């Protein structure tokens, strides 16, 4: 039986090189594309950096100066009045975002469980998924008009109405993000749980939700950050107030409406407070986004 001598072919064939020369065509192409990617990333970050810089210059002096406590806890000033703060707007914003979170997060996660785990291909799941995607394209002011027609006309402006309007906007993000997070759970983990005798409820509670929790929390925090910066729905639902909220059934101040009101006034003090409120709002939203990124970061 004849044998094939491979040693000669192997000796003549050039060995693959793991290192590459700097002037090699593929290296040049990779370097150019990497440079263009970095340039595009820097250009995309310019608007955000410029906005933060402008807010720090215009509103940072008032916020981080001697009036830090007064700005965060004081009442909005009247015309020609000096000093004052944005305390009611901060409390009102947190109250309405809290109401919206209490409504949208449980409903959104339950809908995501049904769409992604229980009956992902059913007519109800497809309809729910379609409506959630449609809601992402609906202007935020429409949520305010809807709640105004349903609630505000009958019961007046209130933090409840503002929170419900924000919950409509948060619901779409929570549903889609939670369903996507649950879809990332490996099927073999669920099959293993079923194989050990777990019921469907136990699989959802013990396997799907804990595994998809980082993605779910990321979606929730992004929805909260988006709701905190909304202004159009609150014009039709919560209106505004110069005082701290005492109950949820009364008109309530918010940071976005305060910025809208004060930025159009002819008084330098109010305009300065509008810049300061903008900085506080951006820092709140930025904080939620950074927290979402940290939670959603894959664990090594």
UniProtKB/TrEMBL annotation:
What is one GO cellular-component annotation here?
Answer: plasma membrane
UniProt keyword Kinase, yes or no: no
Principal place of residence = membrane
Q: Which UniProt keywords apply?
A: Cell membrane, Membrane, Phosphate transport, Plasmid, Transmembrane, Transmembrane helix, Transport
Give the family from UniProt: Belongs to the binding-protein-dependent transport system permease family. CysTW subfamily.
This one is known as Phosphate transport system permease protein PstA
> Which PROSITE patterns is this protein grouped with?
ABC_TM1
TM ranges = 36-56, 89-118, 130-153, 159-182, 203-228, 273-295
- NCBIfam families in alphabetical order: 3a0107s02c (TIGR00974)
Q: Which residue spans adopt a coiled-coil conformation according to this UniProt entry? A: none
What is this entry's stated membrane topology? Multi-pass membrane protein
Q: Which Gene3D superfamilies match?
A: MetI-like
Where in the numbering of this chain does the ABC transmembrane type-1 domain appear? Answer: 90-292
Where in or outside the cell is it found?
Answer: Cell inner membrane; Cell membrane
Organism this protein belongs to: Candidatus Thiodictyon syntrophicum
**InterPro entries, from UniProt?**
MetI-like, MetI-like_sf, Phosphate_PstA, Phosphate_transprt_permease
Q: Name one GO biological process term.
A: phosphate ion transmembrane transport
């Amino acid at each position: 039986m004849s044998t094939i001598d491979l040693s000669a072919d192997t000796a003549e064939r050039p060995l693959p090189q793991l290192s590459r020369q700097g002037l090699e065509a593929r290296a040049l192409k990779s370097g150019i594309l990497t440079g263009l990617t970095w340039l595009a990333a820097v250009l995309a970050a310019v608007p955000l950096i410029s906005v933060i810089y402008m807010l720090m210059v215009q509103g940072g002096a008032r916020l981080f100066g001697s009036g830090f406590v007064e700005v965060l806890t004081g009442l909005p000033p009247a015309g020609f009045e000096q000093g004052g703060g944005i305390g009611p707007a901060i409390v009102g914003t947190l109250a309405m975002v809290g109401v919206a979170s209490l409504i949208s997060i449980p409903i959104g996660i339950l809908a995501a469980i049904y769409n992604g785990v229980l009956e992902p291909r059913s007519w109800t799941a497809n309809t729910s998924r379609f409506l959630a995607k449609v809601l992402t394209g609906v202007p935020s002011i429409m949520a305010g008009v809807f709640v105004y027609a349903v609630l505000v006309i009958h019961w007046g402006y209130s933090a409840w109405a503002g929170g419900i309007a924000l919950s409509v906007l948060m619901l779409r993000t929570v549903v889609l993000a939670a369903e996507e997070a649950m879809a990332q759970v490996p099927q073999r983990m669920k099959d293993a749980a079923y194989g050990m005798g777990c019921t469907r409820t136990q699989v959802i509670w013990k396997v799907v939700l804990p595994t998809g929790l980082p993605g779910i929390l990321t979606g929730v925090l992004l929805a909260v950050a988006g709701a905190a910066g909304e202004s159009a729905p609150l014009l039709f639902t919560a209106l505004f107030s110069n005082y701290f909220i005492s109950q949820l059934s009364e008109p309530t101040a918010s940071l976005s409406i305060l910025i809208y009101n004060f930025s159009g006034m002819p008084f330098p003090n109010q305009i300065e407070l509008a810049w300061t409120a903008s900085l506080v709002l951006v820092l709140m939203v930025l904080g939620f986004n950074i927290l979402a990124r940290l939670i959603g970061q894959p664990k090594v």
